[in-house]
Structure formats: C-alpha cells, structure tokens
Amino acid sequence: MKVLTVTGYKSMELGIFKVEDPKISFIKAAIKKRLITLIEEGLEWILISGQMGVELWTGEIVLDLQETYDVKLGIIPPFENQENRWPEPIQQSYQALVMAADFHQPLYKGEYKGGFQFKAKNDWFVEKSDGCLILLDDENPGSNRFFYEKAKNARNYPIYLITPADLDDAVEEQRMADPDYWS
C-alpha cells in the first residue's frame, strides 16, 4: 500500500471542544501507532480532506513523523475555504497544516455549494487511495459513516479501523509510561 486515506470523527462528535483537550493525545497516540506500522510496510502518502478532528490531528502527526520517515501529506478539501466557520484556533491549525503539506488542492473551486461536494470527496478519496484508516465506533457512527459505507462498497479496498478498544489501549499505554504509575 502506497497511498492511505485517513478520516474519522469531527472533534465535536467526540465531545472535544478545545484544542488542548487531553483526550486528543490518546487519539493521536492510537493513530500514530497505526501509521508507523503502515509507513514501515511501505506507505508513502497520507491523504486527508483536512476536516476538524481526526483528520487535522492526523495531519499534525504526519508532520511529526516526517522528521523520521519519508512520508508525504496530501490535503484535498471538498471546496475552498472549508475552515471559514471554524473556531479561530482550529482555523490557524488548518492553515499551518496546509502551508506545510506536500500537496494541497480543493476538489471544487469556490465555496460550499451543496452536499454533492462531500459525496464527490468520498468518491475521490476511495478512488485515489489504496486503503483507508478510520477512527470509528460501529455503535456510534458520525459523519464518518458516509465515507465508511463508500469504502465498504469498493472492491479490494482495505479498511483499517481504530476502535474504542484501540483508544482504551492508547490510554493504558500512556498511563503505564508514566513512572508514577508503577509506584
């Protein structure tokens, strides 16, 4: 696998409303662990649309991983200026990510015009990538369910999931890494 799409929940779907929420570190740890494995197996590109939450955090992880690994980040939003209505700190994170990305190009010129742009985005990501990594809880799907359904219907398209159990493992691993945990 050379090209991977990563997606998942928007931050508000996870009950995360601040950029310094401690839950983000556990989510990032779980994503990073999976990405490192795939990169070490030959992954070259990670694609995101840049939406708030899992995708932005993934972009930040990829930039960190680029210090050690030869992996590239592509940001392909469904339309221009998707971040205009986001909170200011998240807009700033997005803009910094776009500036540092190896590739950035919206699928559609201009502002939001309709839901068809999100459907086209999902179609494009499945067509242009060799597989996907999705943060997903089958019992509580969010907006990520649309991409997940598209991915499930594609032929020979590997789907890697990060589940609530994986997040629990990330929490436990971080707790155990704390020297005070053992005293």
TrEMBL record:
Matching Gene3D superfamilies: 3.40.50.450
Domain of life: Bacteria
Ranges in a coiled coil: none
One Pfam family hit: YpsA
Similarity annotation: Belongs to the UPF0398 family.
Cited PANTHER family: UPF0398 PROTEIN SPR0331 (PTHR38440:SF1), UPF0398 PROTEIN YPSA (PTHR38440)
Protein name, per record: UPF0398 protein CFK40_18020
Record organism: Virgibacillus necropolis
